[in-house]
Amino acid sequence: xxxxxxxxxxxxxxxxxxxxDAGLNFIDTANVYNDGLxxxxxxxxxxxxxxxxxxxxxVRGAMGDPVRYEGLSAKAMRTSVEESLSRLxxxxxxxxxxxxxxxxxxxxxxxxxxxxxxxxxKVRYGATSNYAAWQVCEMFSLCDRNGWPYxxxxxxxxxxxxxxxxxxxxxxxxxxxxxxxxxNPLAGGLxxxxxxxxxxxxxxxxxxxxxxxxxxxxxxGYFKAVEEMKKISANYGRSIIEIALRWLxxxxxxxxxxxxxxxxxxxxxxxAAAESAPLTREIxxxxxxVWDELRGPTPFYNR
Length: 303
What we know:
Layout (H helix, E strand, L loop, with lengths): L8 H13 L4 E3 L8 H9 L8 E6 L14 H15 L4 E6 L8 H13 L3 E7 L3 H14 L6 E3 L13 H8 L2 E4 L28 H7 L2 H17 L3 H10 L4 E4 L6 H11 L6 H15 L8
Helix pairs in contact: 1-2, 1-10, 2-3, 8-11, 9-10
């Protein structure tokens, strides 16, 4: 997401080199990130080594100004995939995510197109992002009825301070064998512990002028929770980033975690945190206490 905005092409090459040298091989992007520039830079970075990575992109976002296409219609999906393949300089995607629901397009049309792209070898596996559990269940039913392949992977938001998927989505994923690749592991950077509610967003970060992220996380309750996470960090001698990332990586249902970075030192810190020792039961329990306080006493609708 940061390639082409916060990260220059030169720095992006260095970051991808670092990523691959660390033995990591999953790269996630989207057509809409910086209106295609993120894909273009990623493609340049992967010249001569496409076979060394699992490459994922997404369709749904509006492309161009004025908008040339958007949504999950057959025409929009095919145009988007062809352009993504061109920018990424590859003839196939390992994963193609439906970036978010498109109420204007029948889901049958979307799934039929996704299935066709898989048959043609342009997409290996279909996937979803930002869908509710019931919506993916509906997809499975339609796929069964029509002989289409299931979406194999789902990408929801999940971190130590945003655990809404635990009530329904994680049980659903377990039952149906859906792999979970989660995003926002550091809550957009809030779990670095560097942001301040009083002084406002740090310039150049995800929260700087980004209304979506401000609406999502910029609230007193989240900052109080971060302070509690800092106490856990101090008590157990683990950095807050280590705790946040290991908390996800130690989770039995999480298959992969999307790490973003705007600077090389951020990427290095994230890799080091991911390679650190698993969290103790005491740390995990302390994180649960923070979440219980943040979530509050509101009961769930089901039992």
